[in-house]
Amino acid sequence: METTLGKPKKTAQTETLNGSHALVRSLIEEGVSTIFGYPGGAIMPVYDALYDYQDKVHHILTRHEQGAVHAAQGFARVTGQPGVVIATSGPGATNLITGIADAMIDSTPLVCITGQVFSPLLGTDAFQETDVVGISIPVTKWNHQVTRAEEIPAAIAKAFYIAKSGRPGPVLIDITKDAQVQELEYLYEKCEQIRSYHPIPGLDVEMVDQAVELINNAKRPYLLFGQGVILSNAEEELKKFVEKTGIPAAWTILGLSAMPTDHPLNVGMLGMHGNYGPNVLTNECDVLIAVGMRFDDRVTGRVDQYATQAKVIHIEVDPSEIDKIIKADVPVLGDAKAALQAFTDKVNPNSHKEWLAKFRECDKMEYEKVMQHEFFPDTPVLTMGETIKMVAEKTKGDAVIVTDVGQHQMVACRYSKFIQSKSSITSGGLGTMGFGLPAAIGAKMGAPERQVVTVIGDGGFQMTIQELGTIFQTEVDVKILILNNQYLGMVRQWQQLFFDKRYSATEMVNPDFQKIAEGYGIKSKKISERELLNDAVDEFLNHKGSYLLEVIVGKENNVFPMVPAGCSVSDIRLE
Amino acid sequence: MLNIRQEYTISIFSENHVGVLHRITTVFTRRGINIESITVSESELDGIHRFNVVVTETEAQIKKVVKQIEKQIEVLRAFFYPLDKIVYQEIALYKVAASAMKNGMSLEKLIRDHNARILTVDPEFIVIEKTGHKEETTALYYELQPLGLLEFVRSGRVALVKSPKRFRDYLNAPELGKRISEQAVRDLAKKLN
């Protein structure tokens, strides 16, 4: 098989470098100044080159490659730029896979670089050899193995172009050790197009017109938006569109923060543990406008009972998402920003006060049945809800909230407040426990001027707890809120509701998290009483440097509302 | 119609790069779809390979699969066709013991009747070639068996579209999501001429 990547010949513009230096220089050309990684045998020449560029490229040594990839995800989500990860061959490479899969399903741009054994050893079961290109095919947007130094600049250029264009995603470049040490004539040219790849389909005016006609005639239009709005920088366009049309808008979990929480047309969160109105009224709208979202099963519930009464307009950059789950009556392929702009230009100004009022009525019901018990419980035991509410009030919605996965995630996403985009970082599609702590480190590196609070359960915390070491070494300021219910709470909730309370392998006997934090030089506090919460959260947020606040919450509290698996969104339960 | 399982031929045009086959097959394996036959070869365009994949599936599923295949960075286009939209062939080779020739007229008649031909004659065996649809090559297989069939091999399907268009014209057909840019079409056209 041939390779198609460019190989510059020696000219006046080229410079003789080895592959590793060429790699680092290529990364610098792409504007990279932060890298997350972990060294090892097959990537040592690259680490040697990094030593020469410490003034330009800040390498963050995590404590596990999974930590590196999640940190890069956090960095990417908060900056909108590809996160960069470097790992060695074999176990270094395989340890990246969970994070790469997470980035794939959540459309996060990553460029992962792995070292590989010398090319003559490929396929010989050499020490720390694994076929990472083969392993990562299903979870990468693109991947490629480089066996010759001269291919490195073009491979990196292509990697960045693919990772960040269109629907973003993770890319992996595997570089054999001989390619890292060979010399090449270095010349960097950015990649601007690939003939077989068309990241953004052109907007079809006819589809826009059909959509606009549906919207203009709709009595109960309803808009759902996902991360596509954030990825295409369409926050303003979304706001203008809903404000002109008066259409209520709900966010998916990954769409969180794309619109201010308190915007009068923001009706809340979709999904299994989303808000009551956004779920139940899905089956009452007449036109459903989906923007940059993919109808995940956690959003749709039972598909054959999902919005069957509505005409569906689907704005989506990825053609394979159209009709994948929900048939679009009007598919609008293209960039969300351009599509929303075109919609806004053409739609009639409108308002849907009565329809919007229905959402607010639902909110009232949800408040009475769910939220007030969460915020003002009649037991002395603290709830996740009141803790998150206090953090949200004290940060005034200005913090970046990074969550792990489970009950605390749902509560954090439900009750956090956001005033600016790219403020919520969570593992949505893959639901990766252990995501929170390293992602928060990456988020803080990407947005050092912002307060970063990560909310984690006692279970997920222990999946990547070693990243406290990264915090210790880098002195990064991350506020860690552990909501400890001494259970794998979400699984326990399901066991309670659907498995006859048979709590199989969900009870956790936890270590003393304060002692662990102390070992890493991180200030910490544990509280279990309501009267201490206010001061504890103040101290937590105002502390200079990282801080771990452990809040002991009700052991068997459940997250509601809930759309039970396999049920329609209209069957959402409030209790 | 969308939910009736039938045989489809998927034509995929991709760059000739390492790993593309793997990327394409994972789209099928992930959904538990069995590939009944697959052929890959260079197309009339330099550097562009053409895959022909035969599967039995519903149209609804095939549409999703084809879009997932087109989503792969190195795939230019993918199309799917029911049987009546393509002209297709498979090739089969049959190794028969030379003793079969002693059987008087029967081998000659078989070869004539089936429009097969003899590729090579060895003192101990002969190799017969037949192109056709699977049913046709299978029919000859059963007739040769009693004469001493030593080995049999059949290729995957190759197929062309029943359309007067040239490759580069339908490469930009808008049926499915991925439209290649005007520039890309011009570049491809240049290569073709």
Describe the protein.
- The complex is a heterodimer of chains A (575) and B (193).
- Chain A is an alpha/beta fold and 575 residues long.
- Chain A folds into 3 domains: 15-186, Rossmann fold (3-Layer(aba) Sandwich), CATH 3.40.50; 205-359, Rossmann fold (3-Layer(aba) Sandwich); 376-552, Thiamin diphosphate (ThDP)-binding fold, Pyr/PP domains (Rossmann fold), CATH 3.40.50.970.
- Chain A has 23 helices and 20 strands.
- In chain A, the strands form 4 sheets. A 6-stranded parallel beta sheet of chain A has the order 3-2-4-5-7-6, with helices on both faces.
- The longest helix of chain A has 23 residues, at 353-375.
- The mean pLDDT of chain A is 97.
- Chain B is α+β, with helices and mostly antiparallel strands.
- Chain B folds into 2 domains: 5-86 and 159-192, Alpha-Beta Plaits (2-Layer Sandwich); 89-154, ACT-like. Chain A, domain 2 (Alpha-Beta Plaits).
- Chain B is 30% helix and 37% strand.
- Chain B has 6 helices and 9 strands, in the order E-H-E-E-H-E-E-H-E-E-H-E-E-H-H.
- Chain B has helices at residues 20-30, 59-71, 106-113, 134-144, 167-170, 182-192, and strands at 5-15, 37-42, 48-58, 75-82, 86-97, 117-121, 125-132, 149-154, 158-161.
- In chain B, the strands form 2 sheets. In chain B, strands 5, 6, 7, 8 and 9 form a 5-stranded antiparallel beta sheet that branches. Chain B has a 4-stranded antiparallel beta sheet with strand order 2-3-1-4, covered by helices on one side.
- Chain B is elongated and about 60 Å long.
- The mean pLDDT of chain B is 88.
- Chain A binds chain B through residues 1-4, 133-134, 137-138, 141-145, 162, 193-198, 201-202, 318-320, 322-324, 333, and chain B through 14-19, 22-23, 26, 30, 47, 63-64, 67-68, 70-71, 73-76, 176-181, 183-184, 187-188.
